[in-house]
Amino acid sequence: MTTSGPLDDRGSTLPIYIWLTTILLFAALAFFAFAQAAFARNGAQSAADAAALAAAQQARDELLLNLEDAIGAGDDWLVWLDLPEGGLPTQGPTAAAQELAAENDSTLQGGVVPTEVGGHLGFQVSVETNYTVGDSVIPGTEAMTAQADAVAVIKPRCEFDVDADPAKPVELVCEDEPVNIDPEDFNPADLPDASVMFSVRLAE
Question: Can you tell me the distance from the alpha carbon of 174 to that of 3, in angstroms, rounded to the nearest whole number?
Fold first, then answer.
């Protein structure tokens, strides 16, 4: 009489093993796809931040030039220290933002938008990456780009006597650094760097 041996269960566990391996592989690929998307979003945000800061820095440089012109012309130049009521220039800042977006492989969308945050003037920008998320197990990512927005503002850093006469010598205190301006004996080289008189930062 022939005695049968123990049942071989290898045949029954093989499909389960294949099924679990397939699930794990798909999960890994899906995780990689999300990582690709996160990388693209981070790249877009970095480009937007850089573009917004570039726009505000360009506007700050132009403000200093306008301040120099106002002092030289004998105008009420003190108003420029609190930023112009008519708003910030946009042509130069737009070009600066476009350049920085391009350096980060992105495109500025619609130019810079003047805005105000916490009483400070600035710019809002929107960018879109020139690259896509890339191929993945999730359909459509091969053509999907990333977009991001950012806002940068300009903050005056100089304090002065509100009753000061712009036609006479005025002492400014710009972040603890004294700046003396005499309209009657003014040399543009006497002004400090624009960053001393105006700070630029990303809005929270």
Answer: 99
- Rounded distance, CA 30 to CA 175, Å? 51
| Separation between Cα atoms, residue 136 and residue 38, nearest integer Å | 13
How far is CA 35 from its chain centroid? 22
Tokens encoding 172: 């400014």
pLDDT score recorded for residue 82: 81
The predicted-structure confidence for 60-102, as pLDDT tens digits, reads as follows 999 999 889 989 888 888 888 887 766 788 899 999 999 999 9
Residue 172 β-bridge partners: 179
Phi, psi of 196 (to 5 degrees): -75, -35
Can you tell me whether residue 140 is helix, strand or coil?
Answer: coil
Mapped onto helix, strand or coil, the DSSP state of residue 124 is: strand
Sign, CA torsion 97/98/99/104: positive
CA gap 135, 141 in Å, rounded = 6
Sequential DSSP letters for 69-84: HHHHHTS-GGGGGG--
Q: Report pLDDT digits (tens) over 8-52.
A: 555 567 667 566 666 655 555 555 556 666 667 888 899 999 999
Among 155, 187, 8, which Cα is nearest to 88's?
155
**CA-CA distance, 166 to 34, in Å (whole number)?**
58
